[in-house]
Amino acid sequence: GQNIDQPTEMTATEGAIVQINCTYQTSGFNGLFWYQQHAGEAPTFLSYNVLDGLEEKGRFSSFLSRSKGYSYLLLKELQMKDSASYLCAVRAGGYQKVTFGIGTKLQVIP
Amino acid sequence: DAGVTQSPTHLIKTRGQQVTLRCSPISGHKSVSWYQQVLGQGPQFIFQYYEKEERGRGNFPDRFSARQFPNYSSELNVNALLLGDSALYLCASSREDTHNQPQHFGDGTRLSIL
Questions:
Q1: Shortest distance, CA A50 to any CA of chain B (angstroms)
Q2: From the list B102, B106, B108, which residue is nearest A45 (CB)?
Q3: Closest Cα in chain B, distance from residue A76 (Å)
Q4: Would you call B50 and A97 a contact, using CB atoms and an 8 Å cutoff?
Q5: Which long-range contacts (CB under 8 A, 24 or more apart) does B45-52 make?
Q6: What was the pLDDT predicted at B56?
Q7: Which of A57, B6, B44, B77 has the fewest CB atoms inside 10 Å of its own CB, making it the most exposed?
Q8: DSSP-assigned beta bridge partners for residue A85
Q9: Whether B43 and A43 lie within 8 Å, measured CB to CB
Q10: Which of A26, A73, A80, A25 is nearest to A49 (CA)?
């Protein structure tokens, strides 16, 4: 099976930087995704990592270390609209079974 | 282009009933996955279909079944509904059955069991 751990809640200030960590244990690792989910809405794709290193996309960056089973999502220049749950998801095996973590609920305060 | 569409958006059923949820993927997407999300949890994988064949199944009882049609749309069926089946059911589609394609989610069907 797979085990994914991420903090349940975080609070950060508007304009600041926040890092959301995710650790995982799996066999047959085949990629890690980050999704954003606002309350009552569907998850939306943010980033994908399959190789070690940093992927940058605007204000959002995601990092992966496969040897450590570790990823983080970095959000810069936080805006109030960034208040949402951030889901770490790992794909493993030969098909698209994606296992999600519990999600980190981020609250951005003025 | 239209995104992933799911119907109905909300549904109320009673214990023991059966329900069918529907999903239309993004045009050109051949892979469809179903997830169950209960409040405060991440989505839990139920099924994945690609080219009308089941490619994966999560840890759900046989009361849950699904199928994919030639136009790549999909249905999720749940029999003998239990109170614990109350959740948001999400459908996600992706272009191909390869590892680097992200899944795009529909808005979900919120199922309430009384």
A1: 8
A2: B102
A3: 23
A4: no
A5: B45/A97, B45/A98, B45/A99, B45/A100, B46/B76, B47/B76, B48/A95, B48/A96, B48/A97, B49/B74, B50/A95, B50/A96, B50/B97, B51/B97
A6: 86
A7: A57
A8: A37, A105
A9: yes
A10: A73
Q: Tell me whether residues B55 and A93 touch, CB distance under 8 A.
A: no
Q: How far apart are CA A62 and CA A81, in angstroms?
A: 19
Place of tokens 């070690």: A52
Say what the pLDDT of residue A1 is: 58
Residues in contact with B47: Cβ distance below 8 Å, sequence separation at least 6, in sequence order: B33, B34, B54, B56, B57, B58, B64, B66, B76
**pLDDT given at position B99:** 60
Residue by residue, pLDDT tens for chain A (110 residues) are 568 999 999 999 999 999 999 999 988 888 999 999 999 899 999 999 999 999 999 999 999 999 999 999 999 999 999 999 999 999 887 666 789 999 999 999 99
Instruction: Report the residue of A3, A51, A96 to disrupt the B interface, i.e. the one with the largest count of B CBs within 10 Å.
Output: A96
